[in-house]
Amino acid sequence: MESALKDLYRAHTGHTPHSVEELPSSGSNRRYFRLSAPGCPTLVGVLGTIVQENDAFLSFDEHFASKQLPVPRVVAVAPDRMSYLQTDLGDTLLFHAIEKGRLTRVFSPEERELALHQGPARPWLMGFYAEAYLKVFGMSGVGYIDRMLIGFEDEMTEGCIASLSQLYDGNPPFRGRGAVSHATNVAEVLRTVRLIKRFSN
User: Fold this and answer.
1) Taking burial as the number of CB atoms within 10 A of a residue's CB, which of 5, 28, 44, 116 is the most buried?
2) How far apart (Å, rounded) are the C-alpha atoms in residues 30 and 164?
3) Which CATH class is domain 2-87?
4) CA 3 to CA 9: how far, in whole Å?
5) What are the residue boundaries of the structural domains of the chain, listed by start?
6) What is the pLDDT of residues 109-118, one digit of tens each?
7) How far is the C-alpha of 61 from the C-alpha of 72, rounded, in Å?
8) Greater confidence, 200 or 69?
9) Among 55, 37, 54, CA closest to 46
10) What is the 3-state secondary structure (H, E, C) of the chain?
11) Per-residue confidence at 65, pLDDT binned at 50, 70, 90?
12) What is the mean pLDDT of residues 140-163?
């Protein structure tokens, strides 16, 4: 799979990458690599596992770019849309800004505020995401959304039984945080189940 990124880098820059460094994953199945060659820009290559998910990300990137938001720009996409290259914004992560609190489990007020924006997953957004995704991809997107629900089913058998925590870590092992039971989260997951049934029928 890495060869696909090397080919894409070569096609985009005209040079074979001299360095290919895998980067830490961040809450998804996508794999990230930093590719570079002398005299060429350093780019981040992304290997996706689901073409629909890649298409969704690419459409978000296009929208964000149109709003001139400071996010990585996609500069090249493979013909099969399973891999793409984007600009490299460096190694600075919000994750590092709350490192002291993560290690000691005692967060300062500033770290708590930053932690809210460090990629926590909020299950109540699932219903809205599923609805938008199914409107775009129809029946072909049902399997993907259905697979996403498996993790929620497992989670509802632990901790506060038949419920979901307020939010979850954005990186493995996705531990629950905040309130141990959050009705809005459960409601949106149930709405997602109903959406899938409606599209399946």
Assistant:
1) 5
2) 25
3) alpha beta
4) 10
5) 2-87, 106-200
6) 877 777 666 6
7) 8
8) 69
9) 54
10) CHHHHHHHHHHHHCCCCCEEEEECCCCCCCEEEEEECCCCCCEEEEECCCHHHHHHHHHHHHHHHHCCCCCCCEEEECCCCCEEEEECCCCCCHHHHCHHHHHHCCCCHHHHHHHCCCCCECHHHHHHHHHHHHHHHHHHHHHHHHHHHHHHHHHCCCCCCCCCCCEECCCCCCCEECCCCCHHHHHHHHHHHHHHHHHHC
11) confident
12) 84
pTM for this structure?
0.57
> Percent of the chain having pLDDT more than 70?
90
Nearest Cα neighbor of 174 from 150, 144, 193, 191 is: 150
CA atoms of 121 and 127, how far apart (whole Å): 13
For the cut 90, the answer to whether the pLDDT of residue 66 exceeds it is no
Whole-angstrom Cα distance, residue 133 to residue 189?
14
Residues 6 or more apart whose CB falls under 8 angstroms from that of 166 comprise 122, 176, 177, 178, 179, 180, 182, 185
Count of other CB atoms within 10 angstroms of residue 27 = 14
